[in-house]
Amino acid sequence: MEKYTEGIYDSIVAKDPLQREFHQAAYEVLATIEPAIEKFPKYQENAILERIVEPERIIQFRVPWKDKDGKVQVNRGYRVQFNSAIGPYKGGFRFHPTVNLGVLKFLGFEQTFKNSLTTLPMGGAKGGSDFDPKGKTDQEVEAFCTSFMIEIYRHIGQFVDVPAGDIGVGAREIGYMYGAYRKITNNHGTGVLTGKGLTFGGSLVRTEATGYGAVYFSEEMLKTKKEEIKGMTAIISGSGNVAQYAAQKLIQLGAKVLTMSDSDGYIYDPAGIDEKKLDYVLELKNVRRGRIREYAEKFKGITYEAKKTPWGVKGDLAYPCATQNELNDKDADTLVNNGVKAVTEGANMPCTLEAIKVFQDAGVLYAPGKASNAGGVATSGLEMVQNSQRYFWSFDEVDQKLHTIMINIHKNAYDTATLFGQPGNYVMGANIAGFLKVADAMIAQGIYA
Question: CATH no. for residue 224?
Fold first, then answer.
């Protein structure tokens, strides 16, 4: 880092020394946008970096609720409204025991640049709670979601802040929260949450969007090397929404998907996860809420490795779709030695900084999450458009718009990296491209905006 950006980073660490995830996200952005800061002095003159690393607002609150035994439980709720320079705050709610302020600041910071890359008018935010929906009854989840909304409703709105889902927040949780919002406000504000059910304002393709978008992005990366997905093998981590639909799109495009995982371990299917087997995974995870090891019990010839990640399996394409920092430098070395051609982040910041360096030094195509997993929030933006119009598009219409957005995100990141002398450096390209739009909007609106 140069002295100026290093000083910004040091101040972040000094102010909040325990927020390691946020430190990591900020370091990656600050280190890669230095060429833009040097090229355009106006950003330093207007203290853009000092301002852009600070959230505009942080909301923290208690969430009391009753469990199935009638005992009162108390969780902590958050909303980090990071930046609204280019549009209303937009970003998901995450319900997971690991949620804390540092994690949500990292996610909201990343979301700011990701949303900028979509070209849609959306700012960046993230929120959630340390509540764990795993193992809870529907009644307990509804009780928690209602209590959560009793506080957060006053801070969100169609033109203020539009949350969506994330880890631990799927259709069930969004439905309960939207129902509570509607009863509290007496307002059928369909634009206030995205990821809604199709019967009350949701959009087709929203469920598939993040996984589909990641595959569309990797397809564009491979085209720069005159290669295609058809006939390649793919290693996927995770078995939630993103992993499921990345697998589905890969299968549709002719790839062989070899692995999926959850927090207990991973399965390796040398014959490939086909559409029928994937349907089983969707039912297992989305309906029965089971564990991925059950796949190995259902089908023959499957290897199940407990408490391990799938990065030792040989494949052409890797899609980390589980959680942050799941893939380290040792995993990256293994993938490179096994001949991986492209690594595409489906989760938020799943690769450590050291792993990213390994991929870049080896010349492996590497797509950072803020670019490659932007399909989810892009389709959330398309849901907002449909809500505003009181109209709904067909599956194919939304999918085509998503595909076009991902092609444009890739082009923007690739062209920006090339402009700054590092063609193929998608980390630099995505960070600078996302930063420039937000930074210019901040300058235009003055220092108090």
Answer: 3.40.50.720
CA-to-CA distance for 246 and 363, rounded, in angstroms? 23
Could you tell me the pTM of the whole model? Answer: 0.92
* Segments of the chain scoring below 70 in pLDDT: none
What does the block give as tokens for 353? 């900084």
Bridge-based pairing state of the strands 265-268 and 303-306: antiparallel
- What residues make up the domain containing 361? 209-367
Domain boundary among 367, 391, 413: 367
The three-state secondary structure class of 320 is strand
pLDDT 10s digits, 371-421 = 999 999 999 999 999 999 999 999 999 999 999 999 999 999 999 999 999
Which of 90, 105, 114, 126 is labelled catalytic? Answer: 126
pLDDT tens readout for residues 48-102? 999 999 999 999 999 999 999 999 999 999 999 999 999 999 999 999 999 999 9
Q: Name 13's Cβ contacts closer than 8 Å, sequence gap at least 6.
A: 23
Within-domain flag for 294: yes
Burial 313-346 (b: 16+ CB within 10 A, else e): bebbbbbbbbbbbbbbbebbbbbbeeebbbbbbb
Using an 8 Å Cβ cutoff, are 392 and 364 in contact? no
Query: Coil, strand or helix: which one is 72?
Result: strand
403/70 Cα distance (integer angstroms): 48
Number of independent structural domains in the chain: 2
3-state helix, strand, coil in the chain (%, to 5): 50, 15, 35
Residue 193 lies in a domain: no
The verdict on 108 and 246 lying in the same domain is no
- Asked if 93 and 75 count as a contact pair (C-beta separation under 8 A), the reply is no
DSSP designation for 88: S
CA dihedral 171, 402, 240, 83 (to 10 degrees): -80
Q: Is 314 a catalytic residue?
A: no
pLDDT at 189: 75
Task: Identify residue 57 by its one-letter amino acid code.
Answer: R
